[in-house]
Amino acid sequence: MTTYDIAVVGAGFGGLSAAALLAKKGYSVAVLEASFELGGCAGKFNRPGYRFQAGATVGMGFEEGGVLKRLFEELEIDLPPMKRMDTIMNIHMGDETIHYYREKEAWFLELERLFPHIADRAKAFFEEVFQVGSRIDHLLDDLPVFPPKRAIDWLKMTKYVNTNSMKLIPFMTQTLMDRLKAFNVNKDERFLAFLNGQLMDSVQTTAEHCPAFLGHAALQTFHKGAYAVQGGLASVAKSLATSIKDNGGEIHMRRPALHIEQQQGYWVVHSKREKTYVANKVILNNSMHNFHHLFDESVSSKSNVKKDRMDTSWGAFMLYLGVEDNYPADVLYHQIIQNPSKPLAEGNQFLLSLSAPNDRTMAPEGKRAITISTHTEISQWWQQETYEERKAEYVERILDGVEKHFPTIREDIDLLMPGTPVTFERYVKRDKGRVGGYIPNGKWSWLNHYSVHTGLTDVFSCGDTTFPGAGTLGTTLSGWIAANEAMK
């Protein structure tokens, strides 16, 4: 029986990044993926004529110095073809449209147009966002184990005590709402609704509950560049998988991790059909929500993964559409906030992503693929007696919202498929369909993040439930950190 240096459970962006880095360094690696697609929640699925992005759609981190740009340089492989969008997205809020420009100067002019009475203060707030975000980038470049949980982690943190990190301390002890109050822009309901829409899509919560440094990091990331990747983010996953194989690693599809135990100093991962994988170390990229299903209680009780945190995550309701090509070519990402005064979930706020008009991997000539996502509370989707009715209701609610801004949407539809948390559990094996990591709930909530160390010897974690959290950038960084720790 083959014994691997490291077994990686899950082929999401975190697991693929970790495995690619380890294989590049000469480690024997086996990646075990439960589904038949790569990329996890940033993967894809095909239907006749169309490719749909399963969850994440917006490409980020491909700019010079960006996380994925640096990763591909480290692996000495080429990025897939992509185009940077000058307009990050159009935000349709009520009856107005906000053009969220990447370039600071253009964005500041848009702030003056939209919010003339607070424009100077709003611009000053964004200047702070850019400055703090840059400091956070500089800190994360060194791939620290964060937040520190073990004595050795705290000891290693002393190397980060410098002018840059010390200036971040105030933003680690406040919420983003505290910073908005400091600039006196917190009472403008339209500006707050706009910001909260961006925060929900990036850090899963609103300004009131978001740690300031996480909010600043997320908001400045948009302005570093949003990219439309040819073939979707699944093309990035495919490139990482190719790198793994080219460097001697293995990827085993449709091989879910059903149980993990320790035998004679090795970790043994049990999969279906009595298939087992033996490794010195394990990296888990299948969400901490699944953690306690994998180990016996006698083992998992020794970890630092607490069962009482398992419910603090959103689910996603998705709508996948194949449509006639009657849609913008210059702006591919659209956020629709139907009623800014209501909670930004359950179809009131959603992100609509269009495939590029010339991307034939996504749709046939004259057609476009659309992925729409909204946050949803999970438990309601597990009530079987109301499931189909609720699904139909959400489809209509979202189409009503789209129709206000794209009036021909209903007549353009060639293919329509909804997805719910039940769908996510079935296809990407997320427990109860929880996606997007943990929901921040206050200025100190960053301390509750899991680091890559699970508390079990030689078992590491990465992905959206591990620091730095949700999104392809966060999961990639966590995979990079996990790989570094596994090599020690």
TrEMBL record:
<dbReference type="Pfam" id="PF01593">
    <property type="entry name" value="Amino_oxidase"/>
</dbReference>
<dbReference type="InterPro" id="IPR045892">
    <property type="entry name" value="CrtISO-like"/>
</dbReference>
<dbReference type="GO" id="GO:0016491">
    <property type="term" value="F:oxidoreductase activity"/>
</dbReference>
<feature type="domain" description="Amine oxidase">
    <location>
        <begin position="14"/>
        <end position="486"/>
    </location>
</feature>
<dbReference type="InterPro" id="IPR036188">
    <property type="entry name" value="FAD/NAD-bd_sf"/>
</dbReference>
<protein>
    <submittedName>
        <fullName>Amine oxidase</fullName>
    </submittedName>
</protein>
<dbReference type="InterPro" id="IPR002937">
    <property type="entry name" value="Amino_oxidase"/>
</dbReference>
<dbReference type="GO" id="GO:0016116">
    <property type="term" value="P:carotenoid metabolic process"/>
</dbReference>
